[in-house]
Predict the structure of Putative metallo-hydrolase YflN.
Amino acid sequence: MLEQITDDIYRLVVRFKGAMGEVNSYLIKGDNGYTVIDTGIHAPETKALWERVLSKYKIEKLVLTHTHEDHIGLARWFQEIYEIPVYVSRRGYEEMHKGRDAKARKNRIKRLIKKHGAPPIPLKIRDESHIYKFEPKGFFEDNDEITLGNRSYQTIWTPGHAPDHYCFYQPETEIMIIGDHVLNHLSPVIGLWMGEEHNPLEAYFEALELLKGYQVRQALPGHGDIIEDLNERITDIFQRHEKRLQQLLELMEEEEMTAFKLTTKAYGPMKSLAFASQFMATLTRLIYLEEQSKINVQTKKGKNFYELPAKDLQAIRS
């Protein structure tokens, strides 16, 4: 079940139906048992896998990189059924409180997608509020030292993919547990999954730049393969975003559009389950461009329309 990554770190791939289909959980060996990083979603198949693991290995504690459903899903179960203490960031605890009120979250999402021209169908979400309804054993803050296994790791706040996202860095071994901040073959979706409108892409870019200052031999992501050259992968992600940002600017040369219409122009008609993520990625790029003063936004009949500044359109058409 466990794949050895380093002398004290093991990977468990937790597979399940839907969403990403799997999560990398990491078990870090220590004198008092293993520290687990993230769990997978709350589902019968994930519980069955962890029951096998828990029958063979002593688990000291569970630590979360962030509180998205596929990472915190079994945390309450770990703590209440197996009495394994759960540790989350203070920022993550704030997100847990938001997640506990499913009705309020759903209403925020409905208002958000209506404002940006999308029908409710692509962003229909399940009620996962029950996974947030517990009290963690303890908390960590920005730039704390946290013990994982027998080693001390630095907590690095890396918002963007989630407002409460943290990476854990071990300076002696140059290992970074990187969660969903950087993935090897995919660009993490930067979305507004709690329905609150802000500028997460700007925060994401700043957090990517921050990680360039760390010497990392291996980065252990929450999904997919281990990253051997973190800075190279960060450069790739920047370039991918730049292409998508430029694409949106070019599409707006035609006419003003809502985020929903721009998503269909950029990715094609709304067909696949991936459309919700594509819509969120487009929306957060538009918010970023608007705050960079590269586009304008106008509200008409309760919907936001994005357009190039008049001077830019004039220069293009002259």
In short: The chain has a mean pLDDT of 94. The first strand starts at residue 3 and ends at 4.
